[in-house]
Amino acid sequence: MSEILCQWLNQELKVSRTVSPKSFAKAFSTGYLIGEVLHKFELQGDFSEFSESRTSTAKLNNFSRLEPTLHLLGVQFDQNVAQSIITEQPGAATKLLYQLYIALQRKKKSGLTGLEMQTMQPLTNLRLQNMRSEAFRERLKILIPRQTDFNLMRVTYRFQEKYRRMREDVDRVHSEKLERMQKLSEEQRCFNIEKQRLSRRRQNEIMAQIQAAIIQIPKPASNHTLKALEAQKMMKKKKGAEDVANEIKKFEALIKKDLQAKESASKTSVDTTGPMTTDLLNTYSDDDYIKKIQKRLEEDAFAREQREKRRRRLLMDQLIAHEAQEEAYREEQLINRLMRQSQQERRIAVQLMHVRHEKDVLWQNRIFREKQYEERRLKDFQDALDREAALAKQAKIDFEEQILREKEIHEQIAVERAQARYKKHYAVCAEILDQILDLSTKVADYRMLTNNLIPHKMMHDWKELFFNGKPIYEQASIKQIAAKPTEEQLIELEKRDLLDSNDYDDYKNMVGEWALPEEMAENLPPSNNCILGHVLHRLVEKSLPPQVESTEPELLSSSVKGCVLGKTFSGKTTTLKSLQKDFPVKILSIDTLVQEAIQAYHDNEKVSEASSIPQEDRKEDQLTVRAQLGAKSEQLLKKGKSIPDMLLVNIMVNAINGIPVNQNWILDGFPMTLNQAQLLEETLTGCNRYLMEAEGKAAQISTLAVDPTTSKEVPLPSSAFDFVILLDISDNSSLSRMNDVMAEEFSRVISHEDTSEHAAAESQHVDVDPNLRDQIQHRIIGFLDNWPLLEQWFSEPENILIRINAEIDKNSLCQKVKEIFATEIMKKKNKVEKRLEEKEAEKKAASLAEPPPPTPPLPPEPEKEKETHQQRDPSKTPPAKGKPQSETSPGKQESLQDGKGKKGSPKGKPPGGKVQVKKSPVGSTDIPPTPVAPPPPKPGSEEWVYVNEPIPEEIPSFLVPYWELIENSYINTIKTILRHLREDQHEVLKYLYEITTSFQEFLRRPDHKQDFVAQWQADFNSFPDDLWEDEETKAELHQRVNDLRDRLWDICDARKEEAEQERLDIINESWLQDSLGITMNHFFSLMQAELNRFQDTKKLLQDYYRAMERKIPIDDSKRFTRIPLIRLDSKDISENQLRIPLVPRISISPETGVPRPKLKAILKGKIDYSLENVQTNFEADERLVMDTWQQASLAISNMVAAEIHQRLIEEDKENQPAESKEKSPQMSTNKKGKKENEPPKNKKEDKHGKGKSPPVAEAAPVVFTAEEIAEIEKKNELRLRIKEEHLAALQFEEIATQFRLELIKSKALSVLEDLITKVVDIYKLMEKWLGERYLNEMSSVEKLTEVARYHIETATKIQNELYLNQEDFFINGDIKVFPDPPLPKRPPPVEKEEDGTLTIEQLDNLRDQFLDMAPKGIIGSKAFTDILLDLMTLNLGTNNFPSSWMHLTQPELQELTYLLIVNSEFVDWRKFLLVTALPWPIPLEEELLETLQRFKAVDEEQMGTVTFEQYMQAGLWFTGDEDIKIPENPLEPLPYNRQVHLIEFFFRLFADYEMDPPQLDYTQMLLYFACHPDPVEGVYRALSVAIGTHIFRKVEGPVMTAEKTSSTDLSPVEGYVETEENAEREKREFAEEKEERDQKEVDIPENANTEKISMETLLRVFRGGSEVKDANRFTSHLKRENIYAESFMKVFQELETKDLEPIEVAVLLKHPFIQDLIANYPDYKIPDIKMILQRSVHVAGSDGERSPSRLTEEKK
To answer: Which residues pair with 1420 in a beta bridge?
Structure first.
């Protein structure tokens, strides 16, 4: 029953889930399938509410909905049945389904629907049923547990199962444990039994030995028995026999002795008498007699021997009997003695035997125990060895894993470092790119601001910021800076300082923006005031503390100093140890030195008594320096801190100081950081490189004036090392070496078995650091971090770094280091020799250049000694007061010293020729004139010797800060002014851009012209259509266009006037005047800064030289000269409130101002009266700049003239008493002085002169000696040199200041002119924009007018919007003011008849008719012919066939039927429709197989059929036409896509419409498409489709194939002659098929056709007979068996297959029947029906010819 129900459910109903008898109860337990069955019979309308879930809620829902339906069908169903089905009780679901099956069959017979059945029931039954359903639902809720309960039950069951499994596991483990215990106890019991058995056995053996040792004393037998007597007799006989035997032996011995003596005596006699006797016997006796005698003698000898033997035997018997008797006697005597022992003695003997036995047992036990102990020791030793081996193996594995982990850690660290380096580089690159982007955007912004004309100065500033890594854009505002500025504000301050410094450098060096113009480039002043520089240098030296030069001679040592650096395990210590063996070098390792220092502290190392330490200090610091350093190190290490670099350097330097001077030393791995290298070099050399560079920069305090004689740079000291060697090694090599060392140490530790050896090994290899494994990574990282800085440190002054690749073998590395060290020794030796030679040469040159000793001066007066002493003191102590000139050349030193000697000491005679030129006053006046000497040197030149007279000590302390104040004030003022100029330039550009953009926005302001245009267009389009051709209407429209144009023109004129007014407002703003005034004030401030510097410098020089002349400085209470600035506002400010004088702007009226050529060039073009004010104001500003410059220049000239005048007045006052006293021959000088004193003197100068000339007042007529006169002349000469030097310095400052003022003037004029040019260009550009815009707006209005007039004349509406906005006019094609008329609909595509091909509609009509007549596809040939004839003759407008088919006659239709006949009786109408549907793409065999695979992939259930959706999803081997062109005319229909409709038609042709939904047997369809013009090829294609793989065809020969082809192609019409085209086509097709067969024959593989084919597949391919249906609807179904079935069975039997099992295709194709069947099977040939149609058309066209059909009829 279950199988019947399953078949009904699966095949007939086709439920969604396949049901099998095994899973029947489970499949229906949810009730879903029951609902599906009822739904298929249209009884369950709410099937969509059913759920396939197996939860309790879903089951309750499903069965609650099933209950009314089942009761409606009369099926017995209640809550018990539902529970039994839900709980999957066996038979419950089957019983319910059987009842349901019976009920549904009854319902099917009755033909009632579910709704009808419900309406047929009475109303009371319906109410009762509803109540029952509710009760059923409630009871079912109670019976079915909730899902949560069910889940809980499942969870409980799962945990119970888990608990049960765990209990079973525990029980099993417990039972196994009990079994093991029982087994162990059994083994123990067996062992104990065996032990007891062995002990009992051993005890029995002992007892047996004891029993055997007990002496059994027999009872004495009675002597009176016969046996005893006989025994005694026997004993006596034996004894006698033994005695006789002994005597016989003695007798025989004697006889032997006698015989031996006789034989020896008779030998001699026999030798002599022997020959004689024989001769006689031979003569006188015969032979017989002699023989008898000899025989008798032999017998006597034999008898004698026998007798002797018998006698000896008898004697032996007697002797034996005698011995036996004696033995018995002895035994008897012994037994008697033993029998006399007591019982106690026997017991003692037994006990002794027992004790001996126990002793033996104990000894054996001890031996066995020792043996066991030995085995146990051997076993323990072996276990220990195995354990150690296992531990060693595990340790080795752990060690290898540790190595791998360390490598991974190192790789990870390397990756992190690479990532960090990448991030750093990425950040740097990103920052650079950001700056480049900022620079680009900044340039773009300013290109927009300046119309692509960026000033060179701005571009230069941006480049400087970019090159210095500063942001281009402003980061924060620095106008208001708080006490703690932000980081952005600090950056902005740095940017500002950088730009200020660059601007100041350009201004100072007169380059860049401050480059000299062409007219000033010819008269360049000197770049430096050497006199001022010398003065400032001397003042700075006087103000600085004296520098004490070391007098110790420099020690030149030939010792080589170096260090070896590298990563850990790079081979530093190894190579240095090897180097120490070959060279006398001291190796210093910081680790060893620290340990030694700590050990010295522990050893309490004290200072030796021989040291020169005072007693007080020795009590306090008794430890040595090394011990003290060790104490500090240990204290830090105990706290867990690292030793600082300074302490390490002190330890190293302490060790280096202990090395002899001429001994070489090398540091091992030190210094490790840059700080250590700096501290070590500073400690060893006493010089700090960075401090020396900073001091060199700070030494040049003055930047405005430099002393050229002291501006040389001090060279940096040499390095503390002669060489630095880097042993370069990779990180992986370092790690691998560490691992090798650790592995070697580990193997060495394991290899020592004895503890003493192990301890010795540990003591020998203590040098391996136990923490090295943990520190190796940090050491490598530390070296990598510090090495770049160290490399730069050792490479900068002089490259002493030597790199060596340490990834080589040990010997090669050591050899390289030795070679380098030897080379360095030779270099140092050569260097020392060179230095010694240079020193000797300097000494020789100094000895040769020493001047002769000066003559002793006259003894001075007591009053003048002090002055002379004071003047000589500075020359005596040059290090304290003078300037250290150790770096200058010796010649310069001597010249300077000579100058000092001449001018500094008035009493000494200065060497040189200058004194000889001057004549002594004592000499006569009649000396002939001297020859013309070269001109004297000018002050400030290289030949000039500066006056270095002593000055008071308070003067430098006052003048040096004063000069610093002057310099800082000057520099800061210049930087501030240049900054303001720079910022003003940016503001000007921004303002000009703002006014241009604002004016352009003003020009682009919205207007209302579009509103008027839109209104006009709406009015224009609103005119009626019948008025468009009216002339009056056109005239009206033209007038409206004119009105619109006039209104638009008025708007344009008004906008133009507003724009012109806006331009005038911009021009009349006060911005330009304010900008020009601010700019001029900046340049006036520059002039004031130069003027201030000149006045301050003049005051400094005046105070310096007056101090040198021992004069009181002048207290100048006069205020400094001030250059007035321009007043920018009109406020009235009193003069008392002003620190700086202000002047108003000079305004020039346009009438009085005459434009200059420059201004004409600027204002070229049309005369613009709005710019006349700009022109006049610029002339006034230019005149004001010129006046201010002239005022500043005149003030400087006046100051210099006043200073010179003051000098002359003072000289006159000093020289007046000298003239009255001396009346000497110095008249020329006095005359010169008088000439110079001609200018009038001021009152103030007279007062100052009176106050400063007390010697003149004290002068009295005194007679002077020659020495006093010479001294006075020297003073006059010194005063003259001071005057010359002072005035030269002042004149230099005047020239430089005048030049600077002129440069500022020219720069100011150029800047003002450039600003005026830019502003005027902007104003003109505004005027140009205004005019162009006005013209464009007018032209756009004209265009609009033209368009409007065109549409008026053409009488057409303006559909698209007319857009007029400012100067733009266009017709907007995107906007239409009224909609377009609707487009006509395109007609549907229609298929047209072409070349007699049936349309899809005709094919569908034929299919419907044939399907009604023969649903199975097979129809009788006669009925087929009649149907076609009826359809052609009774067409009546049905259009079933094309027009070319209408000419077919009955014979032609019969011929057509003959081509389609199957087995001479029937026609396959599907094949007919398939042929008539041509042309369609005939598939290749590969395409057929690919299509089959696609269908199988879509057919998931592998039923062999597909629905229409699956059919379309899989597709055929062709698709629709892709080249269909859409016609441009919308009224033309689209082209008909025949191939797409053909694909759908093929489904309708081959599908089974009896099934719902229709199903298509795709294999059967593809067998139809396997047909081919060659029937044999068609059969092979069909076999390939049926099997699913390609079947290779074996071609027998072309002739047979051709014959077969021709025979099969023969038509019944024998007399018909084919046309030439058909003949050529057949020949071509035959040639192609031949080529294909040849190709296939060549390409057949060896294992081809190995697939198996079954009888069913074979019968499906060869359709010999099938279920057919004739055309007569009343005929019954004709069922025939396949005619080839029996033949195929015979073939399978002949091929020896069991039960008709599938057979290989290759084997089957070899059978002759199959070969003959394939060769003659015609069903897979595509008939050529076109031939019949062409012939029919040809016959219908010819009137007099006979048709082929008639010929056929005649033949028949």
So the answer is: 1466
Kindly report the backbone phi and psi dihedral angles of residue 1263, in degrees, each rounded to the nearest multiple of 5, phi listed first: -90, 125
**How far is it, in rounded angstroms, from Cα 154 to Cα 144?**
15
- The answer to whether 1209 and 1249 have CB atoms below 8 angstroms apart is yes
Q: What distance in Å separates the CA atoms of residue 455 and residue 1314, rounded to the nearest whole number?
A: 11
How many other C-beta atoms are found inside a 10 Å radius of the C-beta of residue 484? 7
Q: Mind listing the pLDDT tens digit for each residue in 1595-1614?
A: 544 433 333 333 333 333 33
User: Whole-model pTM?
Assistant: 0.53
Q: How distant is the alpha carbon of residue 663 from its chain centre? A: 52
pLDDT of residue 715: 57
Residue with tokens 């040199």: 1281
**Which residues are registered as beta bridge partners of 1397?**
1394
Q: Is the dihedral of CA 1448, 1449, 1451, 1454 positive or negative?
A: positive
* Single-letter amino acid code for the residue at 777: Q
Least confident of 461-470, 585-594, 1024-1033, 1742-1751: 1742-1751
Closest CA to 466 of 442, 448, 444: 442
HSE-up of residue 1329 (Cα within 13 Å, Cβ side):
19
* Burial of 374: CB neighbours in 10 Å, binned 0-12, 13-18, 19+: exposed
CA atoms within 13 A on the CB side of 1699: 0
- Contact assessment for residue 1445 and residue 1701, using Cβ atoms and an 8 Å cutoff: no
Any idea which of 291-305, 449-463, 692-706, 950-964 has the lowest mean pLDDT?
Answer: 692-706
Assess whether pLDDT exceeds 60 at residue 45. Answer: yes
pLDDT for 889: 37
Q: Which two tokens stand for residue 1259?
A: 């002068």
Q: Which two tokens stand for residue 365?
A: 């036990």
- In this structure, how many other beta carbons lie within 10 angstroms of the beta carbon of residue 1595? 16
Cα–chain center distance at 154 = 53
Q: What is the pLDDT of residue 614?
A: 47
| Cα 525 off chain centre by | 62
**Strand, coil or helix: what is 1452?**
helix
Structure tokens at 1391: 């298929």
Q: Under DSSP, is residue 595 helix (H, G, I), strand (E, B) or coil?
A: helix
In the chain, DSSP finds a helix count (H) and a strand count (E) of 56, 17
CB-based contacts of 1348, cutoff 8 Å, min separation 6: 1016, 1020, 1037, 1041, 1044, 1358, 1362
Task: Give 283's pLDDT tier (boundaries 50, 70, 90).
Answer: very low
| Chain-centroid distance, C-alpha 988 | 49
Q: Which residues contact 181 (CB under 8 A, 6 or more apart)?
A: none
| Least confident piece of the model among 58-62, 594-598, 1156-1160, 1406-1410 | 1156-1160
Is-contact 1447 1369, C-beta < 8 A? no
- CA dist 60 and 67 (Å) reads 11
Q: Which position has the higher pLDDT, 1180 or 1137?
A: 1180
Q: What is the pLDDT of residue 1082?
A: 92
CA-CA distance, 1072 to 988, in Å (whole number)?
A: 9
Flag whether pLDDT at 976 surpasses 90. Answer: yes
φ/ψ bin of 1511: left (φ > 0), alpha (ψ from -120 to 50), beta (otherwise):
alpha
Question: What would the 3-class secondary structure string for 1557-1612 be?
Answer: CCEEEHHHHHHHHCCECCHHHHHHHHHHHHHCCCCCCCCCCHHHHHHHHHHHHCCC
Whether pLDDT at 225 is above 90:
no
CA–CA distance from 1583 to each of 35, 1530, 1689, 1720 (Å)?
A: 44, 50, 18, 15
- Contact, 40 vs 13, CB < 8 A? yes
Say if residue 73 is exposed, middle or buried (CB neighbours under 10 Å; 0-12, 13-18, 19+): buried
Q: Name the pLDDT band for 526 (thresholds 50, 70, 90).
A: low
